[in-house]
């Protein structure tokens, strides 16, 4: 092997694990970049070389590249300039939903020497969504004996934006009977409440139609509206009351479609039509409508489609019990989804070096990461390789592992190794994934020529004619 090849192979050797951990550091050393959502593909994000205090061209020399979890490719790195560009237009709402800040973790991988630098891309919100009501009309049945000051909860609007761009306020069309007040929930949501200002008289006005408007805090602000239809009904002095205001149930994520989740129950002291109760969802989200079915007369809640713990861990379902006179009571059903071990571990190889030189000290052959969508013991992972190989697995930062040689290798004894990396979770039943790699051993000039005999005997004729016999001593 010529000297240049030896130098190249030496440059591909990776630093030892304790050096790698010392370079990457803790969470406080994360490199942070930000970009506004909806920027066009190819938009400039930042300069990595400047952020890492590296010289121009050093990223290219060290084989820099970007790695997002799940093999996503949100960013593209120009290795010569160190500039980061968007590979695609990012939608903060699709990526993070209501979570703020919207942070996409990734790694900057450097070779020659090998180094992993944790980084984050923060996707900033713009005011690109208007507040929306799931129902464009709300129906309230209010008895004419209702006292002024009574509060009626209205459907809240949803705004996919966050921060100041999210929902901020409500207003109602001008009228002399009602006004709006805002109630803040523990879930950082704002609910409108309709407050009765004057006594209703069904004989004078049997129906009131109002317009409810939701407004966000963007510049310029966006808004959405819904109609509130108030029916004034005759006296019904007892509203339904649930046996308990909160129900908590657990279901497994493999529960079959059509299985019963829970039965809620309310009672009404009135008789006749005013004592007949029907159960309905109270302004459910579209997801709850798709997932659950409620029997109107029985209060029985059933699964309409399968649930998936990896997608949604719990549901909060508001159920309303309404009697024949329009009075209603509410309860909340919290459905917790229990996780099953239904996702096998995943393995992603980030770096692989083959062939590797014989008679060299400890070499990092491969770098890979592991992940599992399950949680708890179902998501804990162990890694292993065959016992009879001169290689070992070493954990690195977070979910990264390195495959290293143990001692020196001899190509003359064995020139190729087939290694099976097995990743297995600790769930029940245990799921595993296997990944096969082949490592070639390259030759170095470590064996001098050897004669088959150490001495020879030569017989010559007297006239110096060619030898008649040569034999060993």
Summarize this structure as a short list of keywords or feature phrases.
Immunoglobulin-like, 6 helices, 4 domains, elongated, mainly beta, four-stranded mixed beta sheet, 33 strands, 473 residues
Offer a quick outline of the entry.
This protein has about 475 residues and is mainly beta. The protein is built from 6 helices and 33 strands. The protein folds into 4 domains: about 5-125, Immunoglobulin-like (Sandwich), CATH 2.60.40; about 125-235, Cadherins (Immunoglobulin-like), CATH 2.60.40.60; about 240-340, Immunoglobulin-like (Sandwich); about 345-440, Sandwich (Immunoglobulin-like).
Question: Can you describe what's shown?
Answer:
This protein is mainly β and 473 residues long. It has four domains: 3-124, Sandwich (Immunoglobulin-like), CATH 2.60.40.60; 127-235, Cadherins (Immunoglobulin-like, Sandwich), CATH 2.60.40.60; 240-338, Sandwich (Immunoglobulin-like), CATH 2.60.40; 346-442, Immunoglobulin-like. Helix content is 8%, strand content 42%. The protein has six helices and 33 strands. It has helices at 3-11, 17-24, 48-51, 58-61, 92-96, 286-291, and strands spanning 31-36, 44-47, 65-68, 75-77, 83-86, 102-110, 115-124, 137-143, 151-153, 167-172, 178-184, 190-196, 207-216, 223-233, 241-242, 246-252, 260-263, 266-267, 277-281, 292-294, 300-303, 314-323, 328-338, 346-352, 356-357, 364-371, 381-384, 391-395, 400-405, 416-425, 432-442, 456-459, 469-472. A four-stranded mixed beta sheet has the order 1-7-6-3. A four-stranded mixed beta sheet has the order 8-14-13-10, with no helix packed on it. It has a four-stranded mixed beta sheet with strand order 16-23-22-19, with no helix packed on it. The longest helix has 9 residues, at 3-11. The two termini are 37 Å apart.
